[in-house]
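Dear Dr. L.,

I hope this message finds you well. Following up on our conversation about the binding site, I have prepared a predicted three-dimensional model of the protein together with flavin-adenine dinucleotide. For your records, I am including the exact sequence and ligand specification that went into the calculation, followed by the structure tokens. Please feel free to forward this to your student if that is useful.
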Amino acid sequence: MSVLVYLENWEGKFKKNTWEAALYASKTAEMLGTEAIGVTIGDLEDDASKAGQFGINKVLSLKGDDFRQFDANAFGAALNEVAEAQGADTIILSGTFNAKALAPSLAIYAEAALLTNVTALPLSADPFTVKRGVFSSKGFNDLSASASKRVVVFVPNSIGLEESEGGAEVSETSASTGDAPRVSVQEVDRVKGKIPLPEAERVVSGGRGLKGPENWGMLEELAEVLDAGTACSKPVSDMDWRPHSEHVGQTGIAIKPNLYVAIGISGAIQHLAGVSASNTIVVINKDEEAPFFKAADFGIVGDAFEVVPKLTEAIKKFKANN
Ligand SMILES: Cc1cc2nc3c(=O)[nH]c(=O)nc-3n(C[C@H](O)[C@H](O)[C@H](O)COP(=O)(O)OP(=O)(O)OC[C@H]3O[C@@H](n4cnc5c(N)ncnc54)[C@H](O)[C@@H]3O)c2cc1C
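The resulting structure of the complex is given below.
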């Protein structure tokens, strides 16, 4: 039995998430004593053979009219068909927006256990056990799947990237979308901004402590020097200081960047629910009793309007000298 990995592309281009999924799959396959096979869906601009640098030797490419637009049901049906043809019992996806919609449909077609919110490589092969974030990432549980097939959706940024030499062999394959009900996309409203939040390695986020939308310039400047995406707390987007696409937390986007800088955010439990999985958290708040400091790796007690410009200058100087 092999491992299949969905190598997601965005308008033909691969992102870091794709290669992390390839690495996750090849390490899982190593643990299970089998091989990992990649699958791409849709027309490609980038070269899928790069999956070889992350331990995948074979990539199958599904193309055609049925696969021009993302459709969770259709992609689920087709991926299941490929998995069956390849004798795969473990299917790996990186938990992007699309993959989170695709995974349940795939699990139903495959009659597989669905293991979501996985935060590390599988803990054991038999029984197949994974570590998952639960209760909005406030806790973890180890979950074993007794089903003969499983769909594993891991949180992006869980294992990072390790590149090696190699190139995968890419060949075309075919699969049908069966009788899956199809979705037709009428209009696409793109999120504006330089770095989409779910993919950002670093995120600079602002709360009500910034007083008003006119003060976001300093936050954006810090984000620029850090090459970071920008986020905000719920009240900030509710008041239209920032777009809703930047709202993180329990009712917003859940993220797991390497660095999360929270400026003028109190650290309410609903906010932490979406950001506490970040690898390093830096909090800037003028109230030393702010709850966010309990979740912080580094904290600065001070007025954001003084601290943030100084921090930006210090980072600029550091970058210029290194
Ligand atoms: C069902 C439900 C779901 C929710 N979902 C979410 C969610 O998804 N995301 C979310 O964010 N919230 C969510 N909330 C709201 C949440 O409970 C908090 O009200 C919200 O996170 C507070 O936002 P804030 O920290 O920006 O504002 P505040 O709580 O007002 O905190 C502002 C902070 O800024 C600090 N500050 C003020 N001036 C300065 C300064 N000059 N320099 C530095 N620091 C300063 C203050 O000390 C304070 O800690 C939810 C609430 C409910 C009930």
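In brief: The chain has a mean pLDDT of 94.

With kind regards,
A. P.
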